[in-house]
Amino acid sequence: MFQLTFLNASLLLFAAATVIPLLIWLLAKRKPQRIVFSTLRFISLSKDQQKNRTKLKNIILLIIRMLIILLIVLSAARPLFQSAKIKPSKKHPPTAIVVILDTSNSMDYLVDSRTFLDKAKAAILQINGMTTNEDRIILVTSSDSFNNLYAQIFAGKIPEEIVSSIAVTYNPLSLQNMYDLAVDKLKDAQLPNREIYLLSDLQHADFPRKGELPVRCIPLADEIDYQNLSCTNASPIAQFIDRNRTHTISFDITNYGSSIRNDVLVKSVLNDTKVAERFLSIPERGKVAQTISFDVNNDGWQSGYIEVLDDRLTHDNRSYFAFPFFLHPRIAVISSQSKIPPSLASMLRIYATDQGRIDIIKPESASLSMMQDYNLVVCYDPGVLSSRLKELLNGLEQRNIGTLFGFGKSMTADWKSYLNNSFGISIGAYSDKAYSVNYVNKHHFITSIIDNKQAFKNPVMDVWTSSNTNPGNVLIASNQMPLAVAGKSKVLWLLDMESTRNPFFVDTAFPVIAFRSFQFLGNAVQEMQRYSIGDNVTANQIQVPDGNIIKPQNGSFTVTEPGVFRISQNSGVPTYIAVDPSTTESNFKAADLSKNKLFTLLPAKWQQEIFYTRMGHDLWKLLLVLAFLLIIVEIVIVKLEESKPPKIDK
Q1: Most confident of 86-95, 585-594, 612-621
Q2: Whole-angstrom Cα distance, residue 477 to residue 492?
């Protein structure tokens, strides 16, 4: 048995050019024009034998030209003749090799005391031992940053220190991108022999199906029974009325394996200190939702993670959280009034607790440095909007200090203009009519937990009418008329807080909106937006999980790793965000390459298949020689025909 393969199979498409001489010959043949003579005595008739000889010569030349084109295309496609009777050569011609190394998260899976990635690194070193100084070898990984530095053309071997430095990447390139880069690098190597090998756990992904060069997959392990646990969705449960230092974190544990996992240890780490742990049992192919509690000793931002101890695959063991906690918040009320309306004062007291501070500050006495000592600012009925007060409010927004705006029956034109620009609304006249609430923004933190069926049983009275130009800012509305709107670090209530006849103040929805508005503005939002790998974060300065400080260009930063990030905006109060790793590869599903002609899985003894040009005879040189000989034959036939004297029939 024998096998004929092509190293550059995609070039066989150019074999269609073989028919070009035939098309030219067919199109060039024209019937001679028929002319009638009165006599034929001056014209000699050609012999039939001479006609047949000329026709045979043209056909032979046509076949030779077609064969020349076919042989040149076949030689460029690099045919390789292999047979079981032919022993592989110990030597190979100079070859350019690309090793595509999958460094996605699943490559960290532990098999027989070593991860897939460790096995892949060992395979690269074995390939290093098989190369010669005449070979060119290139390493392409799933990490774009690694490729920019090290995806170079190395003579003979890849440096071992580069191989040992490879780690998994949390934002991997697609296989198509890696394959395209591999093909481009092989072209730069400028060697006729080109080979591509893939080192991967072969998890289900979008494998390319068409390409210039075939890919041979090196096996890293036999078929195994995958067992893996992941921890996701760690989130602090918000405290409302009974606020204390004991916090509870909710989280999910998923078992992707086919057997139950008993006595699994789960621990909670807060500010780099283990604060709690518990044991769980997770059914096969199941998910459990659990909670864990711990005490917070200090006020301020709290950050940490919930971790399930599972040695098989560690990248998805942690789910991170970050939340601010102030047991007794400090609140500044900027107001021209000496007293706060009862409806507002009661809500502020519940939020601040008996030990918290609520200070009423006159607008002319307020300063930006003074406001830094407070967790929340309430701007209620502040009187005239002076340039000094406007500058103060802009400074609060730049420093991410939350501000709640509220008014009585009076609101100047300057305040209307300022609030319209700040919240994307258009404030009209004061109204004492009753309005029913028929819209609730379920996507905003403040109103996301309100049940429309249970709340808003009472109408809203004594409000400032308005129309919105930015629907995304609206919290509640009546027939598209906003009643409360929110910005990045600011909230506007269009309710008259001094009204004593507004039935909405005794509705079950009002204390929820008020309390969660204070949480949102006081950096006490515990149901935070969850970030993922690849998301963009806007900040002037970012402290990444390893402690390094980054000042992103144009104020935009792309998250490339999991953990807790410290975000700073100018000189404002810093905030923290939690980023979880992707669990896309946590549940292993093997790729089906049986119908993919571009990829071939090598046997367990793959070392014998490397440099496959030594497995048989490379026929490209022989084909070029045959093409050259046919060119000579064509030239000889043409010259002989031209050298013959013209034959005259008598």
Answers
A1: 585-594
A2: 13
- Closest to 325 measured CA to CA, from 446, 269, 244, 250: 244
* Whole-angstrom distance, CA of residue 571 vs CA of residue 319: 30
Comparing CA positions, the residue from 514, 530, 520, 431 lying closest to residue 476 is: 514
Q: Of 461, 487, 462, 516, nearest to 347 (Cα)? A: 516
Token output for 178: 């890696």
Q: Where are the beta strands (DSSP E) in 110-219?
A: 110-111, 114-115, 136-141, 154-155, 193-199, 215-218
Taking residues 376-390, report their average pLDDT. 94
**Structural contact between residues 254 and 229, judged by C-beta atoms closer than 8 angstroms:** yes
- In the chain, CATH 3.40.50.880 covers 330-521
CATH of domain 229-323: 2.60.40.10
> Per CATH, which fold does 330-521 belong to?
Rossmann fold (3.40.50)
The CATH class, in words, for 95-224+588-615 is: alpha beta
Provide the pairing of β-strand 114-115 with 261-270: unpaired
pLDDT of residue 42: 47
Distance CA 580, CA 533 (A): 7
- Rounded-to-integer distance, Cα 540 and Cα 569, Å: 5
- 349 near 359, Cβ under 8 Å? no
What pTM did the predictor assign?
Answer: 0.71
Burial group, residue 15, by CB count within 10 angstroms (0-12, 13-18, 19+): middle
